[in-house]
Amino acid sequence: MAALPATAPGFPRAAATAKAPPIHRNNPRDESKVTAQTPEQDGKARHGDGLLLVDTILISGLNNATLASARLVLPMIALGLHVGTAQVGIMAALFTLVPMIFSVGFGRWVDRTGTLVPILSASGLILLASLLFEVFPAAPVLYAVAGLIGAGAVFSHVAAARAVGEIGAIADRPRNLGYLVVAYSVFQFLGPMVAGLAYQFWGAAAALFSIGASALLAALLVFVLPHNFDRSPSAGRTDRPGPTTELLRIPALRQWLIISAVFSSAQTIYPFIISLHALEVGLSPAAAGLMLGAFAIGTAISRLSVGMITRRFSGNAISRLALIGGALGYALLPLARDFAALSVLSLVLGVIIGIGVPIALALIYGAAPERRVNEAIGLCMAITNFLQTATPLLLGFLASGLGSGAMTWALALGMAASSALTLARR
What we know:
Blueprint: H1 39-45, H2 49-80, H3 85-113, H4 116-135, H5 141-165, H6 173-202, H7 204-222, H8 245-248, H9 251-268, H10 270-281, H11 285-304, H12 306-310, H13 315-332, H14 339-354, H15 356-367, H16 373-402, H17 404-424
């Protein structure tokens, strides 16, 4: 059993030459490649790490695009079928509820079997969802479609996080995971655009077809491109791992699971907060959309800078500063009333919050027992999905009574409290 770290590792400069565990760079068509590599072979293979990274991210990004696409078009399809808004809300909750229930078990499966079969299974869930509505175009089917697509996209991320994290040296891990999250942003822009156009011009069936086509293309590329999805179990894997609650007893891992969920929730809730605030101060929906665009640009900038920043600062320090900066940014948001100030603040918040997710994910990867990395990532996704479901409900209830300012300050307080937790463990 791997040693359980007492504290979450940062990104020390001394680790720059350390290698990740041997990588099984395989294609499912050639089972002979699923073998351990010698250090000499691994050194030669590192010349192709860039291509492996791009192709692995491309496959995962195609699956991830389907979640943003479905979140856009499924409510439109449901309302077009005369489904009530309350039922649409339940359908929207299923995007996160289903993966929240099953992501830990899925992570254990990835630890046991490797990432190749799970990534294909994730694509299969999304494809099945799109085919269900093609065959049974009825409103009740949309609930199953939402749950299957949500599960497929989240499961794809669990497999991709391990596959990407095992490419290159340990010191490259935060940068590579940052590239993965940046690619998600690109696909989450392109996917909804295609699905929205398909729905506008050709209807619901065409929109669901575009979502299924993205997942099908991801599955096909697994058999065509060189990638890092493989059949190898996690190093040190045993047949009977302990209960998942055992992971929560690791102080460093518990800390970063919470912080990762806070960063993800702070990013997910921003469109909701900015739309309410824009309405309160009299800004147009178009202006709110531009502010969200500024936030997205800031997120992309920070994630592209992960490699440079982690070479100069530890992961602990970056996360603490990002939580404190994010809390300050959210605290200032209700005080900004004009478009220019809100756009600048959105850009800055995007930079600050955007860097937190890949850093926290890399620290989870380092703090988890080696044989249970994917189970830890699955647990992270379960906690994140719970917060992404509960946070809008709780903050929305607060806003209905006290206004969006109180809701925003409550979120700022939560981020500040999380930074205090990390400082206490210094």
